[in-house]
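Q: I have two molecules that I believe assemble together. Could you output structure tokens for the complex as a whole instead of separate predictions?
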Amino acid sequence: MSTKRVDSTQKANDLIDRLREKHGTELMFHQSGGCCDGSAPMCFEVGDFMVGSRDLKVGEIHGCEFFMAEDQYEYMKNTHILIDVVEGRGSSFSIEIPLGVRFIAVSRLFTADELINLEEIVID
Amino acid sequence: MAYTKPTFKAQYENFIGGEWVAPVDGNYFEAVSPIDNQVMTKVAQSNKKDVQVATDAAWKGFEAWGKTSVTERSAVLNKIADAMEANLEMLAIAESWDNGKAIRETINADLPLAIDHFRYFAGVIRSEAGTVADLDNSTVSQEVHEPLGVVGQIIPWNFPLLMAAWKIAPAIAAGNCVVLKPAEQTPVSILLMMEVIADVLPAGVINIINGFGPECGKPLALSKGIRKIGFTGETTTGRLIMQYASENIIPVTLELGGKSPNVFMESIMDEDDAFFDKAIEGLVLFAFNQGEVCTCPSRALIQESIYEPFMKRVLERVEAIKMGDPLDASTMMGAQASTDQYEKILNYISIGKEEGAELLIGGEKFDNKTYPDGCFIKPTIFKGDNKMRIFQEEIFGPVLSVTTFKDIDEALEIANDTLYGLGAGVWTRNVHEMQKLTRGIEAGRVWANCYHAYPSHASFGGYKLSGIGRETHMMMLNNYRHTKNILTSYDENALGFF
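A: Yes, here they are, computed for all two components at once.
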């Protein structure tokens, strides 16, 4: 079995379920860059954020597609991302914010073994 | 000397049409100070309905404001500045408590700069004009300026009052009315500012609605009631703002951050003088505002011939950064603005360690004896390689990544090896190096032998992924108005075509 680039904690999965129920629709993630709440994962209803031709699908967490801009991925390709949840007040349009919690990306470097066995990124 | 912790009302409404208006659905959210992580007050949790109420009130205000003379508009902007100045200390304390930053910064930077921004635009609109051209003997072309109408603005949490001033002052100076949504981490200080300026402000010119991004920011950006949207924040939301603006075909101004290089050439150490001391401070400015600045000089590029002695002096200066009670006038660095920001920064520190960067100082949270539950992080410096994540991603915390270069060409190459291009610093005693670097670096603001100065009469904005458009400087007025061409013929004769 190949190594996933992005995973989620049970807490994140529970929040995804809660948001699915609240919004009555499937959800997706896009990893942000830049200032303020940059470098944070943003959660949207599928169809709200227009996935671009140079956004890469780097994986799925709890049934949600997870995207990142190609140029940003270049710098993050050696790190594993674990999506977790913290209490707190983020800004941005990410849909969990009204609940007083925030998805965060916890990163660590892949091990040498993991690197040779990474999940393939499929580009349409 | 420590200032007294501010007191707030139990609850704040939205400021719409010159009145304090409760949110339509009657919901409020708790505003928390990152200094003690305690609730300080409640503010309106607005939604689509409140956006409608606010844009309607703004259009009503525009009926009069859009027609006021520049003399009157200028006078109002000056009165706003005067009212803020008369309450500078109160607003500065509230700003520190709302955001977490040290009081010496809000008193000496945030508030004076915000006040000056209103005065600057009050001044420039009195002395500028459209243009007239005689195209031929009987044809005159006039380029006249007209306001857009109502504009939407979404501002960040790092400089709540200053970013509000940057967005509001040019917009209303140009004759627009504004609907502004503050960041949900820092929703309070601007409401105190509105209390202070309410009496001098015509109804509907500035409308403030608080709420969360997906519930309030999104409907504001999508609203048919705005003619422009301005946003400061990160790239994913920036893309969404453009996407939403495309539905209404309205212009956007985006400021989306950076990873600003601060370049130190060996000539800075030719003398151990006042200028060298200034250069050391220029590097340590990464800790200004706890590093929560879009232009934070978060990558220091140092010529390898001076690295060891320069860094020795730098580390002494970083060691001397005093942390503590943000309301104490001697405290130099306060709290990070929120818990999720705090967690994110600590994670970047661990990524830096894992990536093999050498930790030179800091690298952990700061135990604040006065506020043990606050979000405090020690100023941190890593030495590493520009390809590392800590060199490429905006950490938005007091974390500096340092690397070295051999010569000016390598310095330029590293400086421009980034997705962003907002700010940059160049430090040298050599005019030729200065010219090559300031023109060679792809960034909207290059500080030459200085850093983190933000005068009103100097433009600010990004190259590359750092955004679209400029802020500050009078050129900003044209981002907030139409140009109308009136083409007049004084010829009495027909063209002769038909």
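A: One point stands out. The two ends of chain B are 83 Å apart (CA to CA).
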